[in-house]
Amino acid sequence: MTPVLREKSVLELRLGTYDTLAQAKTDVDDLLVLAQEDQAQEALEALEEYLAVFQARLDETELSILLSGPDDSSAAILEIHPGAGGVDAQDWAEMLLRMYLRWAEYRSFQVEELDRLYGDEAGIKSVTLQITGPYAFGLLKGESGIHRLIRISPFDASGRRHTAFASVDVYPDIDTNIEIDVKEEDLRIDVFRASGPGGQHVNRTNSAVRITHLPTNIVVQCQNEKSQLKNKLHAMKVLKARLYEREIKELEAGKKADYASKEAIAFGSQIRTYTLQPYRLVKDHRTGHEDSGVDAVLDGRLDDFLRATLLFSHAEKKSA
């Protein structure tokens, strides 16, 4: 999507939100007058129902106001990597992948899988997604950090409780018109055979591409396409997004409120814990927001956590 079309889409979304909010307020005002006149039970019940709708519209409007960063309207590039925990961590990484895919599905966002490296026994070693939709990056940027899972391991014959970690990184899918200085001599490009399930072509030719940016030691790879050229283009897209995000980080190094979850990774602490045993609870350690509906959260019902993170980040910026 071109910058003009993206801006047009954002403006249309904001206008639509305003129109919906204005109509909801009008409906509530009309029902309030009706309820005051006759005190009918039906009118009071309808008023209560419309007040709930109006509150939901207000929450959506508040969310759109919070998403005012320069890259918030961009598509998102999301990466997941398992950490400590062995096979459990790789399985946990795949569970997180499913969670974000389901979240994107609920919002009717488009998802393109740029790269996936399968685990040796189960799960995944890494995955890179491009998620496209209104404010995709703005909504997901707070997910960057370490996610911890506590459960009875299905890979432990003794049925013991295990803790597994996985990291999530989110970058804006930057406009291709933005100049990111990537010199050819700064790149090491390796080609290799793709691994994991695939057709006879994808696993028999050197179609997979790995690009190393030597000055920063950033490594990206793509192996999902049959064409080496397409894999290289996807890998370059991810590399530019990561370099862009790194540049933003350096420019805003003094603003501690920005990318707070990234600092959490640096200190080695998790941003959120998903506990399945001995009790069931998902807790965000930055905002304090909790949800005992673990299954629903892992099924992609993340909006309450995303909203709490945005409100927390907004409050941090104001205090700073």
Molecular structure report:
The protein starts with a helix and ends with a helix. The strands form two sheets. An eight-stranded mixed beta sheet has the order 2-3-1-5-4-9-10-11, sandwiched between helices. A three-stranded antiparallel beta sheet has the order 6-7-8, with helices on one face. It has 320 residues and is α+β, with helices and mostly antiparallel strands. The chain is globular. The protein has three domains: 3-66; 76-177 and 257-319, Alpha-Beta Plaits, CATH 3.30.70.1660; 184-251, Double Stranded RNA Binding Domain. A hairpin with a 5-residue loop joins β2 and β3 (124-132). It has helices at 3-38, 41-66, 87-106, 136-140, 228-251, 260-266, 294-298, 303-319, and strands at residues 76-82, 110-118, 124-132, 145-152, 161-172, 187-192, 208-213, 218-222, 270-275, 281-284, 290-291.
The count of helical stretches stands at 8
Largest sheet: 8 strands, mixed
Strand/helix succession: HHEHEEHEEEEEHHEEEHH
Supply Rg: 22 Å
Mean pLDDT: 83
Domain module count: 3
State the share of residues found in helices, binned by percent: 40-55%
Question: Which percent band covers the strand fraction?
Answer: 15-25%
Q: How does CATH name the architecture of the largest domain?
A: 2-Layer Sandwich
Architecture blueprint of SSEs:
Layout: H1 3-38, H2 41-66, E1 76-82, H3 87-106, E2 110-118, E3 124-132, H4 136-140, E4 145-152, E5 161-172, E6 187-192, E7 208-213, E8 218-222, H5 228-251, H6 260-266, E9 270-275, E10 281-284, E11 290-291, H7 294-298, H8 303-319
Parallel strand pairs: 4-9
Antiparallel strand pairs: 1-3, 1-5, 2-3, 4-5, 6-7, 7-8, 9-10, 10-11
Helix pairs in contact: 1-2
